[in-house]
Amino acid sequence: MSDAPSARLLLPERSIGGVVLLLLGVFLPADPAAGQQPPPTTAAAPVVAEPVQVRDVVMDRSFVGTVTPTRTSIVGSTVEGRVIEFLVQEGHFVQQGQVLAQIRRTTLEIELAGARAELMLLQEQLEDLNLSQPEEIKQAEARMRAAKALQEYASRQLERGKSLVTRSAITADQLEEMVSAADSAANVLVERTSAYELAVTLAPLKRAQAEARIQVQQEIIHGLEDAISEHSVVAPFDGFVTREHTQVGQWIAKGGSVVELIELNEVEIEIPVLETFISELLQCTESQQGTRTLAIEVDALPGEDFTGEIVSIIPQADTQSRTFPVKVRVPNRQGPDGQYRLRTGMFARVTLPVKTVREALMVPKDALVLGQGLPIVWVVEPGPGGDAGNGDRVRPVAVQVGFDVSDGTVVQVVGPLAADGSLPLRPGEYVVTEGNERVNPGTIVKVTRREPAS
Predict the structure, then answer these.
(1) Residue 400 and residue 412: Cα distance in Å, rounded?
(2) Cα gap 412→390, rounded to integer Å
(3) Is there a domain that residue 255 lies in?
């Protein structure tokens, strides 16, 4: 077909020139000076890096519990009787020894007055004895001496009479009278000597008896006073009255309840702790301090901090939840109104240190780049300038993270372990925490180093 256009490649003039230039570039030798030109420069990517650390990490857990009083007491009466005074109300704060209720004691007061009068009488008798006994002993001694003088005189008269009767100066009857007088004087001496010795011997015994009677009477008085004091029901400790169990005019039996009292200057929070953590906790004893709380938060008191100590770990677990009851004692404090801040029944969260991981390898959480596989961190490799940051580059390192061990902004690296058991990172290496989304393997970076807070 003569009118058909011929088959040929139609190129625009600009394209033809380009082909010629391309061919020239292929067949013509390269300029020797071209290889000596510097490559195009790339600006270093600005990043922030923080060091890999090795340190001990204290793991904590929060447990929920309820505030309970340290002591709760149903105060009862030790005697029976009719209540004549009831001196407190629910919600009142009472001090140790303060009278809560008064039970009738008139009969005992009458008996006490009589016992005290009897004591006065016995004391006066002892005083009289102390005054009279020395005089009685002196009188007994004087009578004994008089009898001795009379006996000596009668003996001398008898000896004289015996010499006179041999000369017939006196009759036998007169001599008999002298003998009788001498015997009578001797008997009087024996009697009065015995009386004196008995007075001396019995004097301390009589005083001891009188003192013993006084002591017995004093104990009778003490017994009556104690019985009277038992008719006053007093608070066994400082606390708050939470319930009234009697009123004025009511007859109360021995052991009957008067009030319910709770102590709030210290409170306890009972929390359930899982068996996996219980071995790490210590309770307070005479020889060791209990585990201290890291924090105590009370919903009813936002922003207020409390601290406490474990005082009891009950060694009996709940078989369903596998938790052990742990009691934390917390010192309470008073507000501006004088009322204690922590009150019975408040909901509380207690944070305890449950485990300490020694020499854990820690990296900042911001350094982790999460993907489909293991997380990676970008490790800064110093350039020729070392710490000056001249030519620093980054390389990716895959890490296995133990998210259960963390401390604020850092988390533990647990692997993957190399054949020799070493971890993929070394303490002191710097990893990128800001700008890690802008880097690739080998990227030159300008590093701003940020040291961890001390």
Answers:
(1) 9
(2) 30
(3) no
- Same structural domain for residues 289 and 392? no
Q: How far apart are CA 176 and CA 72, in angstroms?
A: 97
**Most confident stretch, 5-9, 306-310, 320-324:** 306-310
Total domains present in the chain: 3
Q: Where are the alpha helices (DSSP H) in 80-105?
A: none
Do residue 137 and residue 174 come from a single domain?
A: yes
Burial class from Cβ neighbours inside 10 Å (0-12, 13-18, 19+) for residue 106 reads exposed
CA distance 98 to 374: 70
Secondary structure of residue 92 in the 3-state scheme? coil
In a shared domain, residues 285 and 370: no
| 3 state SS of 305 | coil
For 116, list phi and psi in degrees, rounded to 5: -70, -35
What is the residue-wise DSSP string for 415-437? E---TTS--SS-TT-EEEEESGG
Joined together, the tokens standing for residue 4 give: 């058909």
Of 180, 209, 228, the position where a domain reaches its end is 228
The whole-angstrom separation of Cα 366 and Cα 406 is 13
201 pLDDT band, cuts 50/70/90, is: very high
φ, ψ at 208 (rounded to 5°): -60, -40
Tell me which residue range forms the domain holding 130.
106-228
Q: 416: cis peptide before it, omega within 30°?
A: yes
Q: Tell me: pLDDT of 3 over 70.
A: no
Which residue, 356, 390, 418, sits at the end of a domain? 356
Per-residue pLDDT averaged across 160-168, rounded?
A: 82
- For residue 46, give both structure tokens: 């600005």
Crossing angle (nearest 10°) for helices 172-230 and 106-166: 170
Domain co-membership, 270 together with 224? no
CA 362/CA 50 separation, integer angstroms: 11
Whole-angstrom distance, CA of residue 382 vs CA of residue 395: 11
Question: What is the residue type of 137?
Answer: I
User: Shortest CA distance to 304 belongs to which of 343, 274, 270, 273?
Assistant: 343
344 and 369, same domain (yes or no)? no
Q: Could you tell me if residue 294 is inside a domain?
A: yes
How far apart CA 391 and CA 43 sit, in angstroms, is: 11
Strands 53-76 and 257-274: antiparallel
Asked if 291 contacts 350 with a C-beta cutoff of 8 angstroms, the reply is no
Whether 195 contacts 143, CB under 8 Å: yes
| Contact present, 257 and 246 (Cβ < 8 Å) | yes
Q: Across the strands, what pairs with 319?
A: none
